[in-house]
Amino acid sequence: MHHINDSLEDPVALLVLLVPLVLLAGVVVLVVHVVASLRGAPEPLAPAVARAARRHEALVSAVATLAGAGATVGFLMLPSLPLSPAGGIRTAGYALGAATAPYVGAVVLCLVRAVGERTWPRPRGDVRTAPLTRRTVLSTGGWRLVVLAATIATGLLAVLLYGATATPDGQRVARAVVAGGDVVGWASAGPYPGWYYGGPIALGLAAVAVAALLSLRVVTRRRPLPLVTREHDDGVRRLAAARLLAGAQLWTGAGVGLTMLFAALALRSTDHLLGTALSGLVGATALLGSMVVAGTAVPGPRRRRPAVRPASPDGVVA
Amino acid sequence: MTELRVDLTAATPVYEQIRAQLAALVAVGALSPGERLPASRDLARDLGVAVGTAQRAYRELEAAGVVHSRRRTGTVVAESAGRGTRSRSGPDPHADGADGAGGPDLLTDVRALVARARSEGLDDAELLLLVRGAQAEVRVSG
Predict the structure, then answer these.
(1) Is the ipTM of this complex over 0.85?
(2) Which of the listed CATH numbers 3.40.50.720, 1.10.10.10, 2.70.70.10, 1.20.1260.10 matches domain B1-81?
(3) Which of A86, A307, B98, B108 has its CA 20 to 30 A from that of B14?
(4) Between the CA of residue A47 and those of A154, A227, A300, A303, A308, what are the distances in Å?
């Protein structure tokens, strides 16, 4: 079999370059988010206790995002450890690590977020209140949960399709070389997300789905904040869910998008034009769309509003 | 959105405070038939009380026919709950400003009574004392 683009190092180097770029974008989003949040609540008329609640939420978001970024980088660096086997195995380890690291980051972000939700003060005082509404994970997650589910479903579908079209080793895609009506050989290109990469990617996507739902459930079922009005409590809850899902979306979309863009490169090398176009288009949409979705959970610049206008407890840019 | 408020230091047990408030909200139509209530576990967690406390309140409401519980739908306001009160209260969209049952708009009067009591500085306990006293007087004279 003739290998096109046989060297793993170039694409892997590109992937290793792209993943930190995505992470850098995430960190920029984080910095804007933290600065905007710590400068004060979006509504200057909000009571001090509501502003403190938002600051606590911003701190939990920042720690969760940093933990997710750290876990991603750490997972990427695992093959560099002295105990890791050298040579081709280490190179394959880099590729596999790069393919699955975003999902590790997303899972860590979700879990840290869930732990952070447990740090809110418990109800105290002799008089307690509770809203008579049923909160559900779907109502708390809103459209961001639907987008994350669609991204995960797209990733799983892509893994199935790539797995079905990959070579038996699950790392390349091949195309018959035909001359005079006869197959005279096979050309292949990689890395290609067949089962070798697809299995761990599917596990990663499933883990993200479970972690996001579990964490969102913790946000949904958190006790109402003491001394805070119901409107502000709902606003903090929606903000927490938005930032949780935005973070998971950023990491998951980056993973799915980059995987599909790499598959598009391999498909282009083997002249699968339709597959190249579809994979590239969907991959770029997942990557860039996830960044946009993540950006919507960042507080916008504080707007000057007339004093009589009612305060919006959400604080999330629509 | 309605909410429950319980006072842990009140002489009335917490489960009874929950039961009474839910029954009252159903009676005035703030909770409609078929409306789903929070799960007892969620309500207990939000209030910071034991799960058994909320479960007891729900059990008593179910025994009184105010709510019913199903495994799949949870606890919902019963279709027949508060029917008697609602038939005598609230604006009837089909009536031209007239009271729903042709008689006095009882709920409107009660709301006016509560508003007047608060404007005159009476707290809820004092108002309830007046109402119970009036009920006793009517029973005696009737």
Answers:
(1) no
(2) 1.10.10.10
(3) B108
(4) 43, 10, 20, 18, 16
